């Protein structure tokens, strides 16, 4: 069991799913977010409200940690200026503070949007070039490249998880391929934390979907074995599906609606409208 794990973004939707499982894996879990503390802390969990863009605050969090699970960021497309602090500078402060304090590994919530303009039908390998669909996706490219650089220059390990569509259940036709269940999210993060050595690694955050457009064959050494499959919802979504439009980037690129929205405008809202049939 590890001595200390730090979880950033602990009050985000996915961070809240990870707090209890991570608390079971260490003697001390330090959860942090820019939001106020939750009321359901585990017995071995402490909470610090902090701004990831402030190096002094991040250093105080990370001191003594063996591993950082970095999920803190704005999880949507927005103007670059809004993303700069939490998504770009926040990633740098986490990696640099981790280097200074001898952290062994960072498990990072990257995103499909780092390659969101890749055609869905091509099934890109993990090692494909970056092809971001938004400023948000660009921030994930920045952090992935920084993670590789810190590994090669300083020996700080990193596992970058390219999370796809992580929701309790699939929400639309696209999610028949891209869905990541909450249970499989926990399995993926647990694998990334417990694998003895990783170096720099990439893995897709996707469940065992029959229609998944990508494969984790190159990351098999992590031992991630997803158990959920969006195909259980296929009949429901396909029966209500509209006529496909091959000229629509939202249907033809891995990033879905993020591939179509103008730079700086919410991709999450575009997904909501797509799901609602607006």
UniProtKB/TrEMBL annotation:
<dbReference type="InterPro" id="IPR001509">
    <property type="entry name" value="Epimerase_deHydtase"/>
</dbReference>
<dbReference type="GO" id="GO:0016491">
    <property type="term" value="F:oxidoreductase activity"/>
</dbReference>
<keyword id="KW-0560">Oxidoreductase</keyword>
<dbReference type="InterPro" id="IPR036291">
    <property type="entry name" value="NAD(P)-bd_dom_sf"/>
</dbReference>
<dbReference type="Pfam" id="PF01370">
    <property type="entry name" value="Epimerase"/>
</dbReference>
<keyword id="KW-0520">NAD</keyword>
<comment type="similarity">
    <text>Belongs to the NAD(P)-dependent epimerase/dehydratase family.</text>
</comment>
<feature type="domain" description="NAD-dependent epimerase/dehydratase">
    <location>
        <begin position="5"/>
        <end position="164"/>
    </location>
</feature>
<protein>
    <submittedName>
        <fullName>Uronate dehydrogenase</fullName>
    </submittedName>
</protein>
């Amino acid at each position: 069991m590890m001595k200390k794990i730090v979880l950033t973004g602990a009050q985000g939707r996915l961070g809240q799913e990870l707090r209890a499982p991570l608390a079971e894996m260490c003697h001390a879990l330090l959860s942090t977010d820019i939001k106020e503390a939750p009321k359901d802390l585990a017995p071995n969990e402490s909470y610090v409200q902090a701004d990831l863009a402030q190096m002094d605050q991040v250093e105080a969090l990370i001191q003594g940690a063996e591993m950082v699970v970095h999920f803190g960021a704005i999880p949507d497309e927005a103007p670059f200026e809004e993303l700069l602090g939490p998504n770009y500078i926040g990633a740098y402060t986490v990696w640099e503070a981790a280097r200074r304090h001898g952290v062994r590994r960072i498990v990072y919530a990257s995103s499909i949007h780092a390659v969101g303009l890749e055609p869905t039908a091509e099934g890109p390998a993990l090692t494909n070039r970056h092809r971001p669909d938004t400023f948000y996706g660009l921030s994930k490219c920045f952090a992935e490249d920084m993670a590789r650089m810190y590994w090669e220059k300083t020996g700080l390990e990193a596992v970058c998880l390219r999370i796809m569509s992580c929701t309790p259940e699939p929400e639309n036709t696209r999610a028949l391929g891209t869905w990541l269940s909450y249970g499989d999210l926990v399995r993926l993060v647990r694998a990334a934390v417990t694998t003895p050595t990783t170096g720099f690694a990439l893995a897709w955050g996707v469940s065992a979907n029959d229609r998944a457009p990508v494969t984790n064959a190159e990351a098999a050494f992590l031992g991630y074995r997803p158990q959920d499959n969006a195909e259980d919802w296929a009949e429901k979504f396909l029966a209500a599906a509209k006529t496909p439009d091959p000229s629509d980037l939202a249907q033809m690129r891995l990033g879905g609606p993020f591939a179509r929205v103008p730079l700086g405008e919410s991709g999450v809202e575009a997904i909501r409208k797509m799901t609602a049939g607006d």
